[in-house]
Every structure is written in structure tokens, then in C-alpha cells.
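Hi Y.,

Following your request, here is the sequence exactly as I used it, all 236 residues.
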Amino acid sequence: MKTVLYKAGTRGHKNHGWLDTHHTFSFADYYNPERMHFGALRVFNDDIVAAGEGFGTHPHDNMEIISIPLYGDLEHKDSMGNGSVIRSGEVQVMSAGTGITHSEFNANASEDLNFFQIWVFPNKKNVTPRYGQQKFDFFNTRNELIQIVSPSPDDAGLWIYQDAWFNAGLFDKGYFLDYPLKKSGNGLYVMVIEGRFEVEGQELSHRDGMGLWDTDSVKIKALSDNARILLIEVPV
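Below is the corresponding structure, written out as C-alpha cells. Let me know if you'd prefer a different format.
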């Protein structure tokens, strides 16, 4: 097994006033040649957007984009004609394909928004752009993983053009799980949303990340109550 550690405090950080953002991988003004991506996982941004502020209309192409609000409401509009609000407990995916434009704003006038913005390289280029949004029972389901993204529209959750699986869970202290990788050649990126976990002997806490590969499974143990984790399996 090979591993790489991404401690929360080592992430790229920029406070623009309206946007307080942390970058696990090189993005915008943050460049680190040793942190370009983890396999097909290209971007993992932890964004706090001030009340009423947001990202104006901008383009994307040939990227799978996943947005996960942690608290607050994310207002979205795009060139496909979609206009919606993605709330905490919901997840949004977009396949940018041949090209889209979209905007993202904090829908609340008095409260901040915190969301994960995640980009994954697709395994199929120049597809027709598509949009998906789904609500998940993240806060009432305990001690089990909830699949939120997969490669197949027939599976539970949302889907993207990549052999990737996203799972999230809320765990009690002491709960142990052994995550089996679903495809040979894939690795697992672990992000601690809240609380503390032990991942293959390495203790991780709030917003720490870790990549693991050259293994068939990953052992994870919750070290605190109400511990939340996000697992992203991608080709490496």
C-alpha cells in the first residue's frame, strides 16, 4: 500500500473577503507541483462563500464537477437551462462535456455557505453536457456509507463519466469499516469532514485528507462521535 497525506493546515489558502477557500490541489493562484491531483481527482476545494456573494458566470468543459454543500444553500444557474438551489444534504453533479457556463451563489442574504467543489477528469470527452441533483439522508443514517456518486445511472445516487465512486457517512466513536475498492487500479481519497478517524493507522482530524493506492481495501475507524467522512475512489 502507498499513501500520501494532505493535512488540513498544508492546503493552499486564500481569503478574498467574499470567498474563503482552501485548495487540496493546485488551483487558481495556488500552485504546488507535488499537489496537482490524486489520480483522476483534479480539484478539491473547501469554499466558504459570504452571504449573498458567489461566482459569476464562467465556463467549463470536459470535467465532471461535484458540489456538496456542508451548510447553507448554493444557488445554481447554467447554460443548459437549469436553475436550482442545492441545500445541505443534497449533492449536485455536472458533466461539462462539450462546454457549459454556470454561476454559483450563496442563496442566503445573512448566512455563510460552505461547500466542497470537486472536479474529476472524465473517461469520455466531448459528451453532451448534463446535470443531476439528489437529496441524501446524511444526518439520520449512522454507521454506514451512503453512495452518492458512481459510474452507472443504474446504481444508487448520482453518476459521472468516470470509474469513480463517492461515499459519505456519519459514524459513532469506535465504529470500524473496511472499505473494499471496487475496481483494480483505483485508489481512495479520504476527507474527514468532521471529527477524528484512524485510516490505516494514521490519525486524521477535521479537513485532513489522505490518498491510498496499491491496495484492495482500506481500514477506517471513527475516533470520535458524530464523525463525518467522505471517500472518493478514482483511477490512479
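Residues 12-135 form a domain with the Jelly Rolls fold (CATH 2.60.120.10).

Thanks again,
Q.
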